[in-house]
Amino acid sequence: MRFQTRLVSVLAAATLAITGVAAEAAPQPKQNLPIVRDAEIEGLIADYTRPIFKAAGLKQPVDIILVNNPEFNAFVSGRRIFVNTGTIVASDTPNEVIGVLAHETGHLAGGHQYRLREQVDQAQKIALIAGLLGMGVAAAGIAAGSSNMARAGSGIFAGGGTTAMRGLLGYQRSEEVTADRSALVYLQKSGQSGKGLITSFERLERNNILSGVQPNRYITSHPAPRDRIALLQTAAHESPYFDVPDSPELQLRHDLARAKIIAYNDGAGAVQRVFRKDPRGLPALYGDAISTHLAGSPALALQKIDAVIAKNPKNPYFHEMRGEILMEAGRARDAAAAFQTASKLDPKKSGLIEASIGQALVTGGDKGQMKDAVAHIKKGLETDPTNSVAYRFLAMAYNALGDDAAAELATAEGYWHGGAMKDARIFAARAQLKLKPGTPQWLQAQDILQSK
Where in the sequence is the signal peptide annotated (predicted)? Predict the structure, then answer.
């Protein structure tokens, strides 16, 4: 499925986001995020980040994760940048999203997350010491029959925690300012405008005003948008690239991605509203075709996507969507052909699209094509090993070929990448019983059994 969503757990403690509230600075439990997988949008974001990462001197790989959330936000966790789909939808230009990504890159390149964890630990120690001291004073007051001492102890207990939190939030605000400035440096180094970053902060300020939010400067983890704009305005305008617009090609790709997200999340009516100024443009037509497909009208959707393809026959993602529509229509063999066309045209050589060819062949049910199905899915998994859906189809292909051990192992890998560790170990153990000890497959199953 294109634009497939799955839940993953992310440790929210000490994350650094483009927007935020005080709670972000405190350690939080793992949160389940609805992660989107889509070759078109992932390829676009990769192109947005490539020059930024180069300007920042980031040499280690950084994963960009799409979160299906309508809010305008992005944040860093580990070596990953999470971007809400709402950020793409709300941004009229690619430069606005690029500015947000440059900000998060500033956090990564500056090692802010690791230093923030140190500050969190320090704040916890301060709060703990204050708490112990406060309890000691309160206990002494109670023992001495002094209500004033008891109240003073309670005050120390509460005040110590507040002081520690304010110190931590103040530190985080300073790191946000540093990341904003770093973003401008990366944008200028890569020959891009800082206008989009300022536009994003202006949007956040408008949203705050409309929602009645008036953040207290001392109990928020981020500077107020107006303060951030004031600090960046002069430097951004001094850049020789400030008025350089995004290329028409990049703008079109951006609008196509927006149309896809809107169609999947909000339907045809929302697509029409967003693109009402150009209702016959490619983004509007693309979103309309996707909406028709999702509404369960494959015949009409096929007509519409064919009209879109006729306008730009070399766009791989139009052919990919055609494959999805054909799958819905029960034409698996034709869908496989559409995915193959998409794969040939795809400059990114997305593992998602390659695996889709095999998945369509498996759905077709022709046993004579199962070896080809395995080959396509495994090729897709080589470049995208986290595609948990592909493992399920790989297991089905192996079952059709009578290779039960390989099917059990593929199922285990799918569960493992999907985060279902208990099920992964069950199927890994079942696979081992059918595999010769010491073989690569047996060792692969052993890795799953021993993973934490």
Answer: 1-25
Spatial distance between the Cα atoms of 43 and 36, rounded to a whole number of angstroms: 13
Give the amino acid at 434.
K
| The two structure tokens encoding residue 331 | 């034409």
Q: Which of 68-72, 171-175, 314-318, 389-393 has the lowest mean pLDDT?
A: 171-175
Q: What is the dihedral of CA 342, 344, 347, 352, to 10 degrees?
A: 50
| Planar angle of CA 297, 302, 305, nearest 5 degrees | 120
d(CA 323, CA 342): 9
Least Cα distance to 128 among 97, 160, 82 occurs for 160
Helix 39-56 to helix 316-328 angle (10° resolution) is: 150
Tell me which long-range contacts 137-142 makes (C-beta under 8 A, separation of at least 24).
none
208 close to 259: Cβ distance less than 8 angstroms = no
CA 182/CA 100 separation, integer angstroms: 11
Closest alpha carbon to 115 in 70, 81, 76, 65: 76
Residues in the chain: 452
In this prediction, residue 31 has a pLDDT band, given cuts at 50, 70 and 90, of: low
Neighbour-count burial of 29, counting CB atoms closer than 10 A to its CB (0-12 exposed, 13-18 middle, 19+ buried): exposed
**CA-wise closest residue to 119 among 167, 181, 48, 67:** 167
pLDDT bucket at 111, cuts 50 / 70 / 90: low
Q: What is the mean pLDDT of residues 77-86?
A: 91
Mean pLDDT in the chain?
83
Which of 306, 317, 325, 345 lies closest to 255 in space, CA to CA? Answer: 317
Please report, for the chain, the start and end positions of each structural domain, with discontinuous segments joined by +. 1-246
CA distance readout (Å), 157 to 143, 147, 164, 352:
18, 15, 11, 54
